[in-house]
């Protein structure tokens, strides 16, 4: 039976092309159901306040960096979206005087214009946000060397190789409305993938690369970062891939309810818990990663019901 055509962008794959039963099951999930979907290798954690939520996210940076030694450097790969944790990271590092000389950080993605990642002077630059919100706020005595900051902005092959050279303790991320982590979006519905999206095995072979962004991703980033001005948002990005993601010891996804909606958070929780990987929902491919955690702000998951506003 042919898969449905997307309701969002007919030329693309996305979650609206899934079997209707999966979508119905996700919509029915209650808060307690989501917690009970934890299983070995996949943990769902709730936080009651945003303060506690973002503090816990910031502490993941500190916990990863504390494991770094001269003989065993270690680090964390982190997102822009959310960003609220970043100033907290700098404040904690300064407060406890944590020396980061053996620590590393990977920025997970960056916008691309005219075939090249944008410079840090671009108003939407993720590197710019990381530096301004976190790393430039860390005391100079404590900062990691500049060469320990890895961004997908120059040699993407070198960026990819760095995951073999340094231990990635955790890869953090948020979840976009198209159900991506980083910019691992669903693929266009064309060529060899006209009738079926890539298999999970095919998608997982993707490395750090420049990608075309799904229209839903453009709309989301215009909403969250550009005041709704879609024209400001580049249509391509450089992003860490599944290959590098599977080299991280843990994948930690943070759901504050600001980037994806109540239905989307339920859908990926269900698909990972029940081991239903499908590349039209890239986040669901984490069903095959050995150590994944969803951290959820309880009020952010709300409910899936008809409400008129």
Amino-to-carboxy terminus distance: 37 Å
Dominant shape: globular
Averaged pLDDT? 95
**What helical percentage do the residues reach?**
25-40%
Given this structure, which CATH class is correct? Alpha Beta
Weakly predicted, low-confidence segments = none
Query: What structural class do you assign from the helix and strand content?
Result: alpha/beta
CATH architecture: 3-Layer(aba) Sandwich
CATH fold naming:
Rossmann fold
Total number of beta strands: 11
Characterize the biggest β-sheet: 7 strands, parallel
Main sheet strand line-up: 1-11-10-7-2-3-6
The number of helical runs is: 11
Radius of gyration: 19 Å
Following the backbone from N to C, one meets helices and strands in this order, namely HHEHEHEEEHEHEHEHEHEHEH
How many domain modules?
1
What labels would you give this structure?
alpha/beta, single chain, 309 residues, 17% strand, 11 helices, Rossmann fold, 31% helix, seven-stranded parallel sheet
What does this 3D model show about the protein?
This protein is of the alpha/beta class and 309 residues long. The chain has a single domain, classed as Rossmann fold (3-Layer(aba) Sandwich). 31% of the residues lie in helices and 17% in strands. The chain contains 11 helices and 11 strands. The strands form 2 sheets. Strands 1-11-10-7-2-3-6 form a 7-stranded parallel beta sheet, sandwiched between helices. Strands 5-4-9-8 form a 4-stranded antiparallel beta sheet, with no helix packed on it. Strand 2, helix 4 (85-96) and strand 3 (103-107) form a beta-alpha-beta unit. Helix 1 crosses helix 10 (262-273) and helix 3 crosses helix 4 (85-96).
């Amino acid at each position: 039976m042919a898969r449905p055509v997307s309701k969002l962008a007919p030329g693309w794959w996305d979650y609206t092309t899934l079997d209707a039963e999966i979508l119905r099951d996700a919509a029915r999930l209650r808060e307690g159901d989501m917690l009970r979907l934890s299983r070995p290798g996949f943990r769902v954690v709730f936080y009651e306040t945003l303060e506690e939520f973002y503090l816990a996210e910031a502490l993941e940076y500190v916990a990863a960096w504390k494991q770094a030694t001269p003989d065993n450097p270690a680090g964390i790969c982190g997102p822009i979206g959310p960003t609220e944790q970043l100033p907290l990271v700098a404040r904690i590092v300064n407060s406890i005087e944590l020396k980061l000389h053996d620590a590393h950080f990977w920025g997970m993605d960056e916008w691309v214009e005219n075939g090249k990642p944008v410079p840090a002077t671009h108003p939407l630059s993720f590197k710019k946000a990381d530096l301004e919100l976190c790393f430039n706020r860390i005391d100079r005595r404590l900062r990691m060397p500049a060469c320990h900051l890895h961004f997908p902005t120059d040699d993407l092959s070198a960026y990819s190789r760095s995951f073999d050279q340094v231990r990635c303790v955790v890869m953090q991320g948020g979840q976009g409305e198209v159900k991506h982590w980083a910019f691992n979006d669903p693929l266009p519905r064309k060529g060899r993938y006209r009738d079926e999206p890539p298999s999970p095995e095919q998608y997982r072979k993707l490395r750090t690369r420049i990608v075309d962004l799904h229209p839903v991703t453009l709309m989301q980033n215009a909403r969250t970062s550009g005041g709704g001005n879609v024209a400001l948002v580049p249509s391509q990005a450089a992003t860490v891939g599944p290959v590098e993601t599977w080299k991280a010891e843990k994948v930690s996804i943070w759901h504050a309810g600001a980037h994806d909606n109540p239905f989307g958070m339920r859908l990926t929780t269900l698909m990972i818990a029940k081991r239903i990987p499908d590349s039209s929902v890239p986040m669901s491919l984490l069903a095959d990663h050995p150590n994944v955690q969803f951290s959820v702000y309880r009020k952010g998951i709300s409910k899936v019901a008809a409400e008129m506003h």
